[in-house]
Write a structure and sequence with these properties.
- By secondary structure, this protein is mainly β.
- It has no helices and 11 strands.
Length: 124
């Protein structure tokens, strides 16, 4: 059984930072494509960041230079450091695992496992 348990969401003023974590069980994050999606009210779920290794990552254009994805293999945990947050970053953030795909196709339909989500709210 695979579980992805997100934490670290919250409310922050624009320009602030948050660090999201995703503790994984039943899966070895070192071997699989892992990443984050987000969904704002009334909008489709969109890919934010994906990672297999430090040489195989991708980011949505809207977060490049502000967000950094990383893996803590010892703790089997995925992280997303979010800096310079903007109100448009407000959304539910979901941890995701794709066992067979790639960061080049980081879309909801390709995902094998989802976390329950953690809310990020950025106020002006």
């Amino acid at each position: 059984q695979v579980y992805l348990d997100e934490s670290g969401g919250g409310s922050v003023q624009a320009g602030g930072s948050l660090n999201l974590s995703c503790a994984a069980s039943g899966i070895d994050i070192n071997r699989d494509y892992m990443g984050w999606f987000r969904q704002a009210p009334g909008k489709e779920r969109e890919g934010v960041a994906c990672m297999l290794s430090y040489t195989d990552t991708s980011y949505a254009d809207s977060v490049k230079g502000r967000f950094t994805i990383s893996k803590d293999n010892a703790r089997n945990t995925l992280n997303l450091q979010m800096n310079s947050l903007k109100p448009e970053d407000t959304a539910m953030y979901y941890c995701a695992a794709d066992l067979w795909g790639s960061c080049g196709r980081w879309v909801p339909s390709a995902i094998d496992y989802w976390g329950q989500g953690t809310q990020v709210t950025v106020f002006a």
